[in-house]
């Protein structure tokens, strides 16, 4: 599946131009034209890369980036701006941006940077699953909700890893039993409900929003 990119740019014509170029490269694009909408989409749509204009109505791109990092969202961020002073570059990078493209820019340069950051993310994070502010490291078996570490049992970890492997995909109870407990599992299928309850208690311990949703009569899905 092609990478999902969020573009937050208030100049409508420029946003449309960038959208067309990215779409022609095979990417899936979401667009916001103001800061608050951009922040909401960045948190809820789980993009694989964000392109942020610096100056936006409602909230600057730097503030959006700072808020994303504060909640543990590590998606690559490329800032677009007319500001080219060293102090501005430092401010953007200190806020958590990964790259910085000065307007006016060559679309070929922007596309090259997009490819580079997506490639780097795929290489580095192939063992890290992330959705919203929830992240799971397959190698270290660490789980975080934002900056909060969560201690899971082996089976709780396996269940969460399975749901995180494809966010927004609904899994039936049979699929979960076969892939988490094994096709030869002999026992009560209510074991899934029990472990989902355990996971929710730990993931929502500090009042965080629910991410594991019940689909009545079907199974479970990881989504907002």
Gap from first CA to last CA: 21 Å
Structural class: alpha/beta
CATH level-four homologous superfamily name of the largest domain = Response regulator
Helix content: 40-55%
Q: Please identify, by name, the CATH architecture of the largest domain.
A: 3-Layer(aba) Sandwich
Number of strand elements: 12
Give the number of domains: 2
Shape, principal axes of CA atoms: elongated
The SSE string, one letter per element, is EHEHEHEHEHEEEEHEHHEE
What key phrases describe this protein's structure?
4-stranded antiparallel β-sheet; alpha/beta; Rossmann fold; 224 residues; Arc Repressor Mutant, subunit A; 2 domains; 5-stranded parallel β-sheet; elongated
Question: Can you tell me about this structure?
Answer:
The structure is a single chain. The protein has 224 residues and is of the alpha/beta class. It folds into two domains: 4-124, 3-Layer(aba) Sandwich (Rossmann fold); 128-222, Winged helix-like DNA-binding domain superfamily/Winged helix DNA-binding domain (Arc Repressor Mutant, subunit A). The protein has eight helices and twelve strands. The protein has helices at residues 12-24, 35-44, 61-70, 86-94, 107-124, 154-165, 173-181, 191-203, and strands spanning 4-8, 28-32, 49-53, 77-81, 99-102, 128-131, 134-137, 142-145, 148-150, 171-172, 212-215, 219-222. It has a five-stranded parallel β-sheet, sandwiched between helices. A four-stranded antiparallel β-sheet has the order 6-7-8-9, with helices on one face. Strand 4, helix 4 (86-94) and strand 5 form a beta-alpha-beta unit. The two termini are 21 Å apart.
